[in-house]
Amino acid sequence: MVTGQYVDPRSAKKPFKDYAEEWRARQPHRPSTAKAVAQHLRCYVYPTWEKRALGAIKPGDVQGWVTGLTTTHGLAASTARTVFNTVNAVFRAAVRDRMVPENPCSDAKLSPVPRKRVVPLSVDYVRELAAAISPRYRGLVLLGAATGLRPGELFGLQLRHVDLLHAAVTVEQQIQQAAKHGVYVGPPKTARSYRTVPLPKMAVRALKTHLQGFPVSEPGGWLFTAPEGGPVVYAHFMDGAWRPACQKAGIPKGTGPHALRHHYASLLIKNGESVQTISEQLGHTNAAMTLNIYTHLWPDSEERTRAAVDRAYGADNDADQGDIPTAEAAQRRRSRWPELAVLRTPCGSLGRPTHSAAGQTAFW
Fold first, then answer.
1. How far apart are CA 95 and CA 217, in angstroms?
2. Which of 66, 84, 103, 168 could form a disulfide with 91 if both were Cys (CB 3.0 to 4.6 A apart)?
3. Residue 364 pLDDT greater than 70, yes or no
4. pTM of the model
5. Phi/psi zone of residue 193: left (φ > 0), alpha (ψ -120 to 50 degrees), beta?
């Protein structure tokens, strides 16, 4: 009690659901995140721990529960990890609030998440998709492929965000789907997602064509709209436009609009842009995130690493010895560049001689 580490045992008797609902109400979640958290708790947590006291949930209980998410409920490892993170956040808050002395989730072992390699859409696929989709969204497809904007960022563009004169588009908001197929306008995903992306000529032409067919009368008007008017609703866009167009274009099933973002990144990588530049254009949190997603797309990385070492060890043109450094090869180097020979004395190697303008010899 003197050090402030005391936890009243009565606090730990509070039912898990009661505290979790209080915690959820206090969180500054976006509507989409709040919806996902509520679903995780309702479907996968409360059926097990709804009336269980906070202090009665032990590390072994958490381990059995999180393992059952994949073995019993059949959740993918990534989904199970997301559900676990919600419960972990609840218990971390409970520890801070002095409801329980320790977090029972601390040492839980989670199933490894298989790493999926991104396979970008080819230029031909993008062209076929743009031709197959409704003319209302043709400009959206081409703009996504030419800028790498996230789907919500594309939906959130208004006329004021597009500068055709200077060939640039500004990202400062996004549209997310809310409950019952509603939408809301919110900030971009992260602070780094606020950015200005250059528009290539292809995108400028596509936007001009789009605005001719679907004019926007005021700066605050949505660049892309639903058939009935208003901003694009993700679920309606997927069912009514995207999936039918992908099927018509022969694009693999399960490909979403995010594939346009991967396509854009692959083009920048192929043309030699730096990791930092690609990270900034995509609005990633940092360059490490960009590398983690796209490192396998850098062309011929294995060949270039081999060549880097071969250049260092094969630059002496010792063709008869190959790339294996031998005493004979080293002797030939010394005879070719005697000034690089190491001077030997009874005390050992003093170093390599260098000659000053005055003719004096120094060692380094």
1. 54
2. 103
3. no
4. 0.73
5. alpha
